[in-house]
Design brief:
Blueprint: H1 15-30, H2 45-55, E1 67-72, H3 75-96, H4 99-105, H5 116-119, E2 122-129, E3 131-134, E4 137-140, H6 144-161, E5 165-166, H7 175-181, E6 187-196
Antiparallel strand pairs: 1-2, 2-6, 3-4, 5-6
Helix pairs in contact: 2-6, 3-7
Length: 220
């Protein structure tokens, strides 16, 4: 065995256990929705740190973990992010978005106003790191786009399993996030995720998910 390898195994599971656990998990995750109506009820930092720790277990190219998390609960910073995001979104909805895209967004009830960016107790900014300085040398990270995409899924699932609502918000362009968070040029903001509890009167669009049969091909 190579020196840098260790044994690996998983607990033995029966097919019956796998099916039962799979159905239970599917039921849980089918309840996950993108939430735009948050309570201001506080979420302990320890809970957010656990969600980030779970996300950080995600696989990545050459195990480089090419991402950074910025977790924000400071009201002043959340306010600054909201104002900057809404400024970009007003341009998007008024000038940048084509009619086809605006029509696709109509059933979701979205618009340039983003009050949840202040109301949600936490904002998590995900930044992609394409390269880093190591001992003064620029070191490239491998598959950063794919890696942060996988990690984002881990984070959303972790939050939901911990009883927290999330929203994947992608204001464009997002340069303002790097500036507000004080991050270096080699870090590119990818997602802004409000995290918290749904408001008591929260609502979500009544949409139907595409069936699995339209998304999978079985070659046997």
């Amino acid at each position: 065995m190579p020196a840098n390898m260790i044994p690996y195994s998983l607990p033995p599971r029966t097919a019956e256990w796998q099916v039962a656990r799979g159905r239970e998990l599917l039921t849980e995750m089918q309840q996950r929705r993108s939430c735009r109506y948050f309570s201001d009820r506080q979420v302990p930092r320890d809970v957010i740190e656990l969600a980030l720790d779970i996300a950080h277990t995600s696989p990545s190219g050459a195990n480089r973990k090419p991402w950074r998390f910025v977790a924000i609960d400071d009201p002043a910073i959340k306010r600054e992010i909201r104002l900057a995001a809404e400024e970009e979104e007003r341009r998007n909805y008024g000038q940048r978005f084509p009619d086809e895209w605006l029509k696709a967004l109509e059933p979701l009830g979205t618009g340039p106003e983003k009050p949840y960016l202040e109301i949600a107790p936490w904002l998590i900014v995900l930044l992609r790191v394409d390269w880093e300085l190591v001992d003064g040398e620029k070191r490239k990270n491998y598959y950063p786009i794919e890696s942060i995409g996988i990690m984002s899924g881990f984070l959303l699932m972790a939050c939901h399993q911990l009883g927290l609502a999330t929203l994947t918000h992608t204001p464009s362009p997002m340069k303002f996030l790097r500036e507000i968070c004080g991050r270096p040029e080699n870090e590119k903001p990818i997602l802004l995720i409000p995290v918290g509890y749904p408001a008591d009167d929260a609502i979500v669009p009544d949409v139907t998910k595409k069936p699995l049969s339209e998304a999978v091909q079985w070659n046997r």
